[in-house]
Amino acid sequence: MALSIHSKPPGFKVDGFYKKSLTEESALWFLSGKTKVHQFTPVQHSEVKNDTLYYNDYGVKQAEFDKQIALKNLDIKNKKYISAKTFILGTDKYGRDLLSRMIIGIRISLSIGFVAVFISLVIGIALGAIAGYFGGKIDQAIMWLINVTWSIPTLLLVIAITLVLGKGFWQVFIAVGLTMWIEVARVVRGQFISIKNEQYVTAAKTLGIPDRSIMMKHILPNAIAPVIVISAANFAAAILIESGLSFLGIGAQPPIPSWGAMIKNHYSYIIVGKAYLAIIPGLGIMSLVMAFMLIGNALRDAFDVKS
């Protein structure tokens, strides 16, 4: 964070120095990243005398230097105390590198997609398979639960679950996942109803194969193609829902960067000629959603056992 270079356009270059960094690694550093305690300080003018770097902060154009730092505390880049840094996507309103925050923020979008889709598949396939295979009162009870849940607006239900579980990283994952199993269950139920009367299923029942084995090994593989497409759509929907929750302030909480929160923090800059601060994360969301929709269509064609 460097407030002196806030809201700079893409391609902005500035000279500055780095302090020596201390790297702190957690047990799950490959998920949470490595924390580097250092700060880039942009400078307007600088001069090295003896063992001290004298400088003025970026934007201060006075002739005399008003700040100093010992050279031993600097992190030397390319054998130079002062290094040039380019902000490819510019900086946000707090002077943070927008590209870095976009890269870190994609972890939230990908994580919410995988976790929410996994939860929706586990619940949806289980309930849909039981309802479609056994029918009768079991089917009626599960369909009643599906219809009641389906009648509640998705965003409203997610907000309610989030408020109950609290604001946070994993709470949003669980809340989104618990609201996306309905379509999976309906499709799986329909597929099981149409497939359970096939001759190979009747033959399996005649041979005394357990119902669970018939459901998992004989019917489900033939019903999985539309589920894959729905999973890809749910992946995209989960990203959009998380972005909406972050925009409303009940998604991933600061300092965790989220594309939805980035849009929220900068949407007012659209009218002051700095629309890129909100457009860049918006394009990121749009591109990621489109990518997973295309992946879903490709997986449907690849895993369709009927083709």
Automatic annotation (TrEMBL):
One GO cellular-component annotation of the UniProt record comes to: plasma membrane
Q: Answer yes or no on keyword Ion transport.
A: no
Upper lineage: Bacteria, Pseudomonadati, Bacteroidota, Flavobacteriia, Flavobacteriales
Supply the InterPro entries for this chain.
Answer: BP-dependent_transpt_permease, MetI-like, MetI-like_sf
Instruction: Give the record's membrane topology.
Output: Multi-pass membrane protein
The compartments listed are: Cell membrane
Question: Which UniProt keywords are present, listed alphabetically?
Answer: Cell membrane, Membrane, Transmembrane, Transmembrane helix, Transport
Q: Name one Pfam family in it.
A: BPD_transp_1
One GO process term, biological-process aspect: transmembrane transport
- This protein is called Peptide/nickel transport system permease protein
